[in-house]
Amino acid sequence: MTAASSATVRPSIAITCGEPAGIGPEIALRAAWELRDEINCVLIGDAPFLAIIADQIDPDIALAAVSLLAVRNDGLPNFPASRLVVLDCPLAEHVVPGKLDPRNGRSVLQMLDMAIEGTRAGWFDAMVTAPLQKSTINDAGVPFTGHTEYLAEKTAAPHVVMMLAASGDHPLRVALATIHLALKDVPAAITAESLGQTLDVLQHDLQSRFGLDRPRILVAGLNPHAGEGGYLGREEIDILIPALQAARARGINVAGPYPADTLFQPKYLKDADCVLAMYHDQGLPVLKFASFGHGINITLGLPLIRTSVDHGTALDLAEQGVGHADHGSMVEAIRMAAKMVAHSTASST
Ligand SMILES: NC(=O)c1ccc[n+]([C@@H]2O[C@H](COP(=O)([O-])OP(=O)(O)OC[C@H]3O[C@@H](n4cnc5c(N)ncnc54)[C@H](O)[C@@H]3O)[C@@H](O)[C@H]2O)c1
Ligand SMILES: N[C@H](C(=O)O)[C@H](O)COP(=O)(O)O
Hints:
The chain is of the alpha/beta class. It has helices at about 25-35, 45-55, 70-75, 105-120, 135-140, 145-155, 185-190, 190-210, 235-250, 260-265, 265-270, 280-290, 315-320, 330-345, and strands spanning about 10-15, 40-45, 60-65, 85-90, 125-130, 160-165, 175, 215-220, 255-260, 275, 295-300, 305-310. The protein contains 14 helices and 12 strands. The protein has a 12-stranded mixed β-sheet with strand order 3-4-2-1-5-12-11-6-7-10-8-9, sandwiched between helices. A hairpin with a 5-residue loop joins strand 11 and strand 12. The protein binds nicotinamide-adenine-dinucleotide and ligand 2. Nicotinamide-adenine-dinucleotide binds near residues 27, 132 and 297. Keywords: Cobalt, Cytoplasm, Magnesium, Metal-binding, NAD, NADP, Oxidoreductase, Pyridoxine biosynthesis, Zinc. Catalyzes the NAD(P)-dependent oxidation of 4-(phosphooxy)-L-threonine (HTP) into 2-amino-3-oxo-4-(phosphooxy)butyric acid which spontaneously decarboxylates to form 3-amino-2-oxopropyl phosphate (AHAP).
């Protein structure tokens, strides 16, 4: 039984606070406090540090710290909405806002491990992540490219897809065929097999997590003008078109490949549920231009629900103290996770 289905109560959602020197702790606290009457946000981070930030934001914010051991033994405590639960994940070192310290890098990963454990164990219905600094995790000695890849590895998910979405009733959604990959490695990573898996995951999760009956997916080409008939690259002819034909034969409602530069216009988007871009900086700038500060990053293909913000650690803002960061994307990410919980519960009953 999931946390939310145990009673008609607020869903419980784990929020990892991310890089402590960035804006993650502030936006997590602000969003959790704002949504407290509808969602039980359990913050995962260093409890004494979060208490200091909470006090700077609003002295009325009341926190209740619990240890991982206590939750493992007794489950999540049942506090009223007027108190935010903090699952304590101690940092190794004192935090200076805006200044990265690799000695805290492993604690940031422990936050993720706690959220994964708790979501899989049913303490939480979903997990939402505040931004972390990928370079600091690497500087801490752990090879790391992103939450998406880390979650895939930790949950043994065979194929995951990064999708960013704007908010709203008919939101722009952009998924990626490759994720955090150096541009020079992108063409070789796009194979008929990987594209087929990406389309299968998209179709499956747009149905089961978003309640879309027959999602329509538009696919961007890799090369300028989708290869210009082979004169500007052959990947469309050799890989994309056959992969799309095979996906159609499996019942997926997919069209393309379209030239990426002209695909993002209302004429095409009005009937689409998702655009599949070939690489990170083909798709994400469009989404972030349309909705930066209110977009949501969603990992598809996982055995759990995970959403995140559309921005990074904003060290420049954290350095100035609390009160400069917009927590709108965090609010949307938490709301989206709650909606996905509701859709998933409905589609499994
Ligand atoms: N979900 C995540 O964990 C996530 C997402 C994106 C980037 N990152 C990481 O964040 C680090 C910094 O990345 P970056 O500098 O490219 O991007 P960034 O999003 O941190 O900052 C880009 C610009 O946007 C502004 N900005 C970002 N968030 C804001 C907010 N909530 N309110 C107001 N302004 C905001 C910043 O001040 C900065 O000017 C990198 O290590 C990157 O990998 C993490
Ligand atoms: N690619 C994301 C973005 O630009 O918003 C970001 O790096 C976060 O990725 P993860 O969720 O995998 O950490």
